[in-house]
Amino acid sequence: MSQLPLTPLSKLPNFDPRQVPVLGHDAHLPAVAAAHLLPDALRQRFQSPPVWQPEVRSEPRFTDRAPRQAAVLIPIVLHSLAQGGPTILLTQRTAHMSSHAGQIAFPGGKVDASDADASAAALREAWEEVGLPPEYVQVIGQLPAYVTGTAFIVTPVVALVQPGFTLVHQPEEVADAFEVPLAFLMDPAHHRRHAFAWEGVQREWFSMPYTDAQGERFIWGATAGMLRNFYRFLSA
Fold this sequence. Notes:
Layout: E1 22-25, H1 39-47, E2 68-77, E3 87-93, E4 104-105, E5 108-110, H2 118-130, E6 137-142, E7 146-147, E8 152-161, E9 174-181, H3 182-185, E10 192-198, E11 201-207, E12 210-212, E13 215-217, H4 221-235
Parallel strand pairs: 2-8
Antiparallel strand pairs: 1-10, 2-3, 2-5, 3-4, 3-9, 6-8, 7-8, 10-11, 12-13
């Protein structure tokens, strides 16, 4: 993959991803069957994983800083089918963050020296950012690492979450938290492809816009890339 010129984070390109043209949708790909999105099926998939390849592993780098290990939690909230079925809990970062400001993200962050592993880091970050109690969370597996353009090597930790928790946002980091139906995200008819040229390099990504009572939730970039890999894992 071609690489962008390495720059300080202060020189990241400033653009609105919503304004970048859509190159295409993936409605020709099958959605993950509803039965495969239920708790027992999700556990079984990680216990006996298929032969598969992640579609997105890394982004062209924007910075020359040393890579940092990070972990995110992909929290699948186990609402009943009568309540619409499982959802994924996502956050919107505050606008003043030093990286990925204002973007839709999974709960997560840097792995600290005190964290036993990526799962411990993801659970800690979810508690610190949105107050998700660890006792509601069952980790069932991990997806392959995803390397962001801002030099984070991110381990996605997949977990099942029992409903009934009350979230408390960390106001310095999280502007909002919301849920998106897992079935929506695992249907590639909702996966859109974009491309953007910056300093002579073509940068490509997915978006998965979702509309709820608050308006459009524009899921894109690393979050959409990891969700796309999750789709590939479940549909293999």
